[in-house]
Each structure stands twice: as structure tokens, then as C-alpha cells.
Amino acid sequence: MKRMITLAAASLAIASLAAPSFAQDTSEPVPGAESGAATGVLPPDIDTTGAITTTAPPSIADVIQAVKATDTSATQIGTISAIGEVKVVKISELAGSATELQTALTEHQDDLTKLRSAVEANPALMAELDKKQVEVPRIVATEIEADGALTVYVQ
Q1: Residue 32: left if φ>0, alpha if ψ -120 to 50, beta else—which one?
Q2: pTM for this one?
Q3: Element (H, E) at 100
Q4: Running DSSP on this structure, what letter comes out for residue 55?
């Protein structure tokens, strides 16, 4: 009897582990659904490791964080010789509190002056910004990504 109970329990355990699992195919769009900002669904990106990631659009909070790191950004820009992708983000198109941003810009005005000087002193970066018609006085912050991409926030 004891053997039968043990055998039945083992059979149930094995049966529950051997159940088939079904993965959802995400390569096909859902009928009637569109990805993008209009639907609030972001298209996936594939990073350098092959993992799929979703990149959220920047916000005013991201710009404020970049403004607070402007001194570091200025130092980094001064040492960059090869420029990767340059993304220009207009802060007027971002969600968030513009008042908080103005406060951060006022508090970090000296660092912002340093950043703009570093940008002007970097010929490779200036060439990229000229292509994108970015005027240095409009720059309020920058972020340098791990892959070398540079995000420039402008007014």
C-alpha cells in the first residue's frame, strides 16, 4: 500500500512536469493593433547582446538628471575623438515639469557654460551638430550612452 501511494505521487509529479508549454509568437503583430506613440506601445529594440529591450522616450526628469551631471558630461565630451550616433531631443516636446527644469538649469549654469565650451572645442561633435542644425547656445544637457551614442537636449 505504501509503495502504491509513493508510485502514484511520483507519477503525478512527473506528469505535471512533462506538461507541454506554449510560447506566444511576438514576431507577428496583433491584428488591429499598431505600435508606436499613438497607442502607447513601444516597439522592441534588440541590444548588442541580442536581448529585446523597450526604450522609453525621454522625459523632463531625464533632462533634469542630465543637467545635474553636466559637469561630468563636459569632461567626457572634451575627451571624445570619435562621435557615434547623435540624437537631438527638443525639450519642448517632452512630458514633465518645465519649472523644475528651469530650476536645475539655474542651479547648474556654470556647468552648462563648461559643457557648451567643451562642445565647441570638439570639432568632430561640432560637425555632427552642424549636420543636424543644432546651435550650441540651445544645448541644455547631454548624455553619453555606453555604446558611444550621444543624446543632446536642446531648447
Answers
A1: left
A2: 0.62
A3: helix 98-107
A4: P
